[in-house]
Structure formats: C-alpha cells, structure tokens
Design a protein that fits this description.
The protein contains four helices and twelve strands, in the order βββαααβββββαββββ. With 253 residues, the chain is of the alpha+beta class. The strands form three sheets. A five-stranded antiparallel sheet has the order 1-9-10-11-8, covered by helices on one side.
Length: 253
Amino acid sequence: MQFGNATDGDSAASNVWRSEAPRFIGHPMDLHPEPDVLLSGSVTVCLWRLRTEWKRISRIEGMASLSTIETARVARFPKSPLSKRFAIERALLRRILSGLTGISAAEIELSEDTDGRVRLAPRHGDLSIAVAHVGLWTIIGVSRSPIGLASAAAAYRGSDMHGATEETPRARAHVRQLSLLHAGISAQIEDPHDVMFDDRHAAYLFDACAEGRWHVLDLPMPGSNLLALSAPYPIGRVHAYGWAGSTDYALKR
C-alpha cells in the first residue's frame, strides 16, 4: 500500500477523509473480560496494553501454555530479547483468548499466515487478532471483525522526550497506513489534500473500494510512541484494558 500522487484539488480524487471517532472506553487491566464484550451489534475492538515482561503472568505458567512449535522457537535463541518478547506475547495472548473462548490457554490453537499475522483456529471461534510492539509495550487486539495494529517507537530528540517533532505528522501517517496493511488491505490511498498527515485529528475513514470502508484510529500511548488501529467502518466502540485514565481520549486530539 502507498499514498497516491494525485495533484488536482478535486475532493472526488480522495478516498480518505477525517471521521468521527468511536467511543474509546478505558479499563483497568483485566486479562479475563466478559466474553460477551465482543457481542455488540456494531464493530467492537478489545485492546490490551501490557508491559513486555513476566508480570501479569509468571514465566513458568506462561511457558507451560505455549505450543510445542512456540516453545521450540523460543529455545532456538534462549537469550535473545526477541525470543523473550515472543514468549511473553504468546503467553499473554493465550491467557486472553482463554478467557474469551472458555478453552484452556495451552489448548488454544494458533498459527501465522504468510504475512506473519496470528490466526486463531476457526474451531475456537471467529475472532481476529492483531499484535503490535512499541517501546516497553505489547499491544494485543481482538475483535469479531478484521483488525490491524501498527506502531512506531518515539524518536527522542535532545532532552525533549515527549514533544512532537517536524517528522511526527509523516510518521503518524505512515503508522496509520501500516495499520490498514496489517489488516490485510492492499488498496492504494489517494490523499491529494494530505488528510492523513493532519496531526490534529485522530480518526479517519478510508474507502478501499472492493475491500470495503475502514475506520483508522490513533490510540494513546506514553510519550511520543505512536499506535494506530484499523477496523471495518464504523467502529462502534473500543474497550481498552490498561488505559484506565484514557476514556474518550480519541475524541480529544
């Protein structure tokens, strides 16, 4: 996916617009939310923002829940930070899915497609999974609709670790674009008015023609870390576990 290079001023040439934001509901961390939280008639997304460390789940318990293939993957590079991150990510994901499906964490069947997206076996339920990493955080998304997450770590400049730089709008546009790609959307963005480069707005509508209409939403992260979510338009609500103090953030850029 890439941004189109249309140059005329005709708004009809654009397929991305600023949009109303869905309801963003922050919750304290809970790895076992009620399963019916995803049964709303509208598109509902559940997100978990977790430290990438053995804290919410013990290492012994987490490693015991991994599949044989996952355990072998970790064992190949036992001292690698990426192996540790993978093990924690999968252990947390299995714990969350266990709560949503009623199946034990060790019996959850997961696979990866050719693009590295995590898939839940259809026999366990029709759930879409997205995972992103940024800084010290692992972000896990689950929905009954297709979803994509994308992130970018803060670019610290001098002593200003929290302020935006002149590159922030371009970086944010790139993360929004990647979230669509990670949701499996390949349609090209035609944005002659640089709507996606607007750093003052947090929600967008993208018309991907045959691939449907998509909601793109910026999500709150500490410092200058960037995180974006894409899901079919319109997203009705986002339940965000680990964002207890951020309810309705997306309505206020």
